[in-house]
Amino acid sequence: MRVLFLTARFPYPSLKGDKIVSYQRLKHLSRNHQITLLSFCDDTLTRQDLTEVGKFCRDVYTIPLRNAEIYSNLMLGGLGNTPFQVLYHQSRAFRRKLSELLAHNTFDLLHVFMLRIAPYVADYAGCPKLLELIDSMELNMERRASFEMGIKRMLFQEEARRLTGYERRLAEKFDRAVVVSDVDARAIKAHNLQVSPLGVDLQQFSPRPVKDEANHLIVFTGNMRYFPNENAVLYFANDVFPRIQRKVPGARFWVVGGGPSPKLRLLEDANRAVRVLGFVDSMSEYINRASVSVCPMLAGSGMQFKILEALACGVPVVATSVAKGDIRISEAEGLFIADDPATFADKVAGVIEDAQRQKGAALRAREILERQYSWPQCNAVIDQIYAELSSRRN
């Protein structure tokens, strides 16, 4: 099929959740479909990024987000009911290019990534449409608001209010909408939602022999510019890790991922057993060094790549219920759940003290990942939707 693929963020480098998913989709879908990509971009876009994504597309068009237009949109729409993130992505240049592409090409399918740009084609009826929401932004904003104070709390509460019902109404203007978990599907409540879980690259993330340095090492991985990740690290470092140190005196905690704030850097000064490493070339290398990976998320929505990646490396994970969502992996396969600091510390200490057996348990999770959470399995859901929408068009 001839597919027009729209994304709110350029899919490469694939270092953030939605960019990982859109990149993997393009890589897979390009084998059987002819793809034209129209994407917003920022000033970090490089020729190498364009070349990498260009391998999977017939044509690639990028539209930069302009600060002046963003501020104007937010000011003019501030008193209305349109979600701020949708206002943020309103662009005359993007709309012109989209109109041009639709006028001069015949597409068999529109594949749209994320709520924030879905309104551009919500009322388009020229061909079937697929919307990948990934997660529920209303749920995400509600959780975020609970951790803010003052004006920021009011802003996130207002965004959650604007999103109430908005996701459902917008999703139902598409032939099919996709989220990554049942939790998000229940929050949105659209009749045409289908669940396609996140995948993990089982070649990139696999068990590897490392030096004995792995003893008593705890890792947290992820994009540290993302508020729920920063919030989780601060919670763990301040409320959980000192309890673990009392149980396991040699315990160390490493924070691995790009964009750590000065607030996170200060954790190293407060506790010599904490290291904030920032961006690394190989996340799997650092996961494999660890005795246990932690995912103490208190905010956010969707699925957590960090859980799948650690289990793919045969490293046990201790996570909150918010982080686990509906990942169907149990403690017998290395995924432990704890929702208060004392229990979280007990679970992590228990895994460290029984590291060999727990790593063996986590290795069993790879079989589940291969069946349910590998990219080929997850992309098969999208293939099925493409086939359905193609037959509908015919």
Can you walk me through this structure?
This protein is of the alpha/beta class and 394 residues long. The chain folds into 2 domains: 2-197 and 375-393, Glycogen Phosphorylase B (Rossmann fold, 3-Layer(aba) Sandwich), CATH 3.40.50.2000; 212-373, Glycogen Phosphorylase B (Rossmann fold), CATH 3.40.50.2000. It is built from 17 helices and 13 strands. It has a 7-stranded parallel beta sheet, sandwiched between helices. Strands 10-9-8-11-12-13 form a 6-stranded parallel beta sheet, sandwiched between helices. The protein starts with a strand and ends with a helix.
Which stretches are low in confidence, meaning pLDDT under 50 for 5 or more residues running? none
**Largest sheet features:** 7 strands, parallel
Fraction of residues in helix: 40-55%
Number of strands: 13
